[in-house]
Amino acid sequence: MTSRAGAVIQASDMAASMGVSRLHMRGNGQLLKCFRRILTPSQRRVGTSAEACQPLTVHQDAGKSFLTLQEESLERAERSVLISCPSKTSEKKILKFLSKYGTINNCFFYDSYGSYAVVEFASRDGISSLHGAASLPNIQHEASVPFKSRLLTLKSNGVDLSDGPTSLKLQPQTSLSVNELIQRLAKEESIDQQLHSLTSTLELTNENIALRFLVCSLLKDVAGAFFPECTIRLFGSSVNGFGKLGCDLDLFLDLDTVSGRSIKRPSGLAVEYQTKRVASERTVTQSVLSVVGEGLEQFAPGCVGVQKILNARCPLVRFSHQPSGFQCDLTANNRVAMKSSELLWLLSRLDERVRCLVFMVRCWARAHGLTSSIPGAWITNFSLSTLVVFFLQTRSPPILPTLEQLRELASPADKCVIEGNDCTMVSDLSKIQLKPNTEPMETLLQEFFEFYSTFAFNRMSINIRKGMHQHKPEAAPLHIQNPFEAGHNVSKNVNTTQLERLVALCRESAWLLAHGGGTIPPGTVGAAGAKAVPWGIAALLMPSVAEAAGVKGRKKKKREPASERIKNLLQSLNKPARK
Ligand code: CTP
Ligand code: MG
To answer: Is residue 156 helix, strand or coil?
Structure first.
């Protein structure tokens, strides 16, 4: 780890080398480092042997609610540390070394401009023991900030932590490039297999999810200095079931326990600072985020490029967490977004076809530049997921229930009202019973593209609360209602050009699938090592498709219509969306 990235543990010898980590401010500001303090043998504790340590496993989560799963993951993260390891290190030796400080439940390694270990101890004592043993490097011209972070560096000063060529088994934190993905998909034998393969290649791994919760918990250590009882929660694609390796980290600073809103019966006591007068809730959110943003910039190891975007509709602090490589957006007072993440998570678990189709549509949109990591007039992944959900609600029989149906199944404990919006929905998945629908994913994908090729976007709004389209209440080119805030259009940013590109690409992709795109070309499978011909969904991810269909004014390739339906689709390529 570079000195920029955070606190440091120095391992000066195998017997006594962990030191208390402290932040340092170097000359111009936030360069963070540590000094060193040698541990005496009596300060050490012997924990689990390295051999007993298991890699992260899939946690048994069947039947657990979204909130329970989040709380369990956060609790594990609070017992974990992030350690930058020297290169050419032996996994076994590192674990043996660390297990002297406490029983290790889980551990994995990854690479992000250097090797890191995520180490989950059986209890927080392991962290105290590490902190008690860690030292700070004695560097001139640096002033230290007394903050014990759980981001540490292990240095092999005079210690042999290497084990010849058998170094660390690194867990991938990024996914394949589109070209590699196309090659992999081309080798599958059916479109349904391709969709499964795409999902399992791109989805977040257990390790990546654990790292996301750990970063969340590291940030809470800083925010907790200002608001001791706060929590930082994850929302968005990190937890909604549709996260792809490399997606951003959406964080929500939850001050509800601090604000006292959860206290139902007044006791006669009032806390003075809670009643300090400010213009509005928004002003409070802005000042809380401003303070926490400042804290992250000044004191949080590894947080760089902190920007306070406080005048946005939803004020946020944006920054990079260098050691994990995550781009983070921290918001406060954003409970409705937590609820929409829970809704998507719930829907993603009802039928495996949901995740496969959402992953495909998100990946397809990215491959053709319909989505972007830069804010602008592009459609967002959240809006695309909503389009898939809506389409699946309209199947016969429906593959997904409407939000109103989920509300009807809710128990009294599920009741939830946020800022006047009824966000109640069932949390027990076993209560949701739908009529069987056995449509293959190939059919669903093709019909998804056809559905949105001809959808009357100019007049109609998409409403997943009712599973029905409705007349648009405003003139935005694309109108997708926020499931919990009926008056809010989640795709307000999308302009006419981007909507036209989306529709043109849907038409082209529907045509490709109908025109033999679903048929595997002879000789594609079985030629080990040979470059497979992109077919099926692999062909839909090819850039040439976008050029042929999406860009206005370009010469279209001449094609032979295979059926009346395809001929109509081809003709519709040059027509505006249905009125
Ligand atoms: N959200 C919302 N309204 C919007 C945009 C976002 O309610 N107009 C909420 C959704 O709950 C969404 C979350 O904020 O899941 C995070 O937004 P974003 O990061 O844009 O979407 P993700 O679903 O996280 O997808 P991505 O993988 O692109 O980050
Ligand atoms: Mg996100």
So the answer is: strand
Using the predicted structure, report yes or no on whether residue 166 has a pLDDT greater than 60. Answer: no
Q: What is the atom index within ligand 1 of the atom nearest the CA of 244?
A: 27
Beta bridge pairs of residue 319: 328
Lowest mean pLDDT among 28-37, 218-227, 262-271, 437-446: 28-37
Atom of ligand 1 at shortest range from CA of 380: 20
Q: Which residues surround ligand 2, an ion (CB under 5 A)?
A: 236-237, 248, 250
The class of domain 5-171 in CATH terms is alpha beta
pLDDT digits (tens, 9 = 90+) for 195-223: 999 999 999 999 999 999 999 999 999 99
Helix (H, G, I), strand (E, B) or coil at 196: helix
| Mean pLDDT, rounded, of the chain | 82
Q: Where are the domains of the chain?
A: 5-171, 178-202+352-548, 206-258+281-337
Alpha helices, DSSP H, located in 266-418: 281-299, 335-348, 352-367, 381-393, 403-408
**What residue ranges line ligand 1, CB within 6 angstroms?**
235-237, 240, 247-248, 250, 337, 340-341, 380-382, 482, 490
Sign of CA dihedral 536, 391, 387, 575: positive
Name which residue sits closest to atom 2 of ligand 1, judged by CA.
Answer: 337
Is the distance from CB of 45 to CB of 102 less than 8 angstroms? yes
pLDDT digits (tens, 9 = 90+) for 493-542: 999 999 999 999 999 999 999 987 656 666 555 445 566 788 999 999 98
Tokens 């409070």, located at residue: 284
- CATH number for 178-202+352-548: choose from 1.10.1410.10, 1.25.40.10, 3.40.50.720, 3.40.50.970: 1.10.1410.10
**Could you tell me if 388 and 227 are in contact, meaning their C-beta atoms sit under 8 angstroms apart?**
no
Secondary element (H or E) of residue 341: helix 335-348
CATH topology of domain 206-258+281-337: Beta Polymerase; domain 2 (3.30.460)
Helix (H) or strand (E) holding 105: strand 104-111
